[in-house]
Specification:
The protein has 277 residues and is an alpha/beta fold. 38% of the residues lie in helices and 13% in strands.
């Protein structure tokens, strides 16, 4: 097996990384990437995670928790003596990452903004942690999943979708986000866009809803459920509304492979409904 040049292993911050060697100690502060590490066969090398890192459920419980994605216990991370810490531009605070980088040189910064970006993510992780065969396998599976969803989307009607991620205030996603680009694969185009803000606040009023064909209540980061959908329907009989598992649209890494299939199934089910109430 040939060696991987560090020039090929560049993260989202532009930092070049070298292969980690046989015994990396990895702390992951990104839930979907914790799952990716396990799917690459690196579960035994993961020594720390956030409390939101819940997959794979049958194995991740044995990994020590270092706080949440936004409120990391940096001292706890330090005590775990990691060689590498996995972080994300959207999910982790810059000041936290800078504090960790002061004692851990192997900080891998990630920032996928579209499902196809996972291909580079697999290559980066496979190269740094020396799992080339596993990363190639995931890349093939993702490429196949992308091809399937694109073929399937040809028969789906275009819908203007309000994807809600928070309440009090109401928040949504702009077009320049991973979620929005994922939804676009099934011909769902997000409304409430603000080119200056990736996750803008919106007023849930008649003006916005008039431009909306479908309202989606995501299960994360705010835990919207069917109860919230019913409350919305009681106040606003149109447009149609539905709950969506946030992992389908917002989790990257290996979860994206099956997430795309689930998204297409949901889009097909909801396409049977009329565009307005």
């Amino acid at each position: 097996m040939g060696t991987v040049e560090s020039s090929e292993l560049v993260d989202a911050a532009g930092t070049a990384h070298r292969p980690a060697g046989a015994e990396p100690r990895i702390v992951s502060l990104v839930p979907s990437l914790t799952e990716l590490l396990f799917d690459l066969g690196l579960g035994e090398r993961v020594v720390g995670r956030t409390r939101f890192c819940v997959h794979p459920r049958e194995r991740v419980g044995a990994v020590p928790v270092v706080g949440g994605t936004k409120n990391v216990d940096v001292e706890r991370v330090r005590r775990l003596e990691p060689t590498h810490v996995v972080v994300n531009v959207d999910e982790n605070r810059r000041e936290t990452v800078e504090e960790i980088a002061a004692f851990c040189p192997g900080v891998l910064v990630t920032h996928p903004t579209a499902p196809a970006d996972n291909l580079d993510l697999y290559r980066l992780f496979g190269g740094v942690f020396e799992r080339p065969a596993e990363s190639v396998r995931l890349g093939r599976e993702l490429a196949a999943a992308l091809a399937r969803v694109r073929r399937g989307a040809r028969g789906l009607p275009p819908l203007s979708v309000l994807y809600l991620i928070w309440t009090s205030p109401w928040m949504t996603v702009s077009r320049d986000t991973y979620v929005s680009r994922t939804l676009a694969l099934v011909n769902w185009h997000t409304v409430g866009d603000d080119p200056e803000v990736r996750y803008p606040t919106v007023e849930l009023d008649a003006g916005l809803l008039e431009k909306t064909d479908l309202v989606l209540f995501s299960s994360e980061p705010f835990p919207f459920s069917e109860r919230h959908v019913e409350e919305f329907r009681q106040r606003w009989p149109a447009p149609p509304a539905a709950a969506i598992d946030g992992e389908i649209a917002s989790w990257y890494g290996s979860r994206a492979i099956r997430g795309l299939a689930e998204l297409e199934k949901l889009a097909r089910r909801l396409a049977a409904r009329p565009a307005r109430g």
